[in-house]
Amino acid sequence: MGEKSLLKKRWSGNSFNVIDGGRVRQRLWILCVIAAALLLASCGGKDKTASKDFDAADEGDAKQNVKKNVKPQADAEAAVIETDYGKIVIELYPNLAPNMVARFKQLIKGGFYNGTTFHRVDPGLGIIQGGDPLSKDDNPDNDGQGSSQNPNVAAEFSDVPYERGTVGAARAASPDSANSQFYITLKRQPAFDQRYTVFGRVVDNQSLNNADVIMNAPTATGTERPADKIVIKSVTLQPRASFGS
Questions:
Q1: Which pTM value belongs to this model?
Q2: What is the rounded distance in angstroms from the CA atom of residue 65 to the CA atom of residue 50?
Q3: Domain boundaries, the chain
Q4: pLDDT digits over 192-237, tens only?
Q5: Which residues are CB-contacts of 42 (< 8 A; sequence separation ≥ 6)?
Q6: What angle do CA 153, 168, 136 make, to 5 degrees?
């Protein structure tokens, strides 16, 4: 029996259509080509340019592997961010997020953050976000898309809530795409809980006040980008004991 005389059934909507075997093979070949093209597109450079906005993840992200009932314990070293708006002192929690804290400290020691900016501010959500090396250049359109040359850091979720002063790891849609960017919440945000890695906290009121000033800076029209660059002049590691509780 020849190929052209073969009859097969194909489901279409709520009914079956009868088509010949040759057309089936032709259409299957076309579908394979399309599927391959889509796969290449999804596996290509997309992740390298995807926004690392802290809230870029899908709402359906599973709250999996959440570390619960663990009280944050401050590292012996605190991160001190120097800006034209004053300093922001952050204590770090390696018992909650050892890998993200290790990455943050590694980048600080290498001077990675010096000269980057707080490229995103949103008083409505109550956040400021920084840590993107692309924010050093003169192209504002790529801010939020950069990361370090190191591998991404897997999610280290905990049940520590996002309150005023909480420091979290920014990421793209994948829970395991944190890298260098970070953000500070300046108001309670329960929707962020257990969906983004908490790895630190702002330690004092003056630091919080300085962060508030940054958050309320004028922005470019229609964006969350400060109209004038808010440069992180330096980030250093200093003894946590040098700062108040």
A1: 0.77
A2: 24
A3: 3-43, 51-242
A4: 999 999 999 999 999 999 999 999 999 999 999 999 999 999 999 9
A5: none
A6: 80
Tokens linked to 121:
């501010």
pLDDT digits (tens, 9 = 90+) for 1-30: 343 333 233 333 333 333 344 554 555 454
Domain 51-242 indexed as CATH 2.40.100.10: yes
Q: CA geometry: angle at 39 spanning 36 and 42, to 5°?
A: 155
Transcribe the chain into DSSP letters: --GGG-EEEEEETTEEEEEEHHHHHHHHHHHHHHHHHHHHHHHSTHHHHS---TT-S-TT----S-B-S------SEEEEEEETTEEEEEEE-TTT-HHHHHHHHHHHHTTTTTT-BEEEEETTTTEEEE--GGGGSS-GGGTTS---SSPPB----BS----TTEEEE---SSTT-B-S-EEEE-S--GGGTTTS-EEEEE-SHHHHHHHHHHHTS-B-TTSSSBSS--BEEEEEEEEGGGS--
Question: Alpha-carbon Rg of the chain, whole angstroms?
Answer: 24
Q: Tell me if 146 sits within 8 A of 135, measured CB to CB.
A: yes
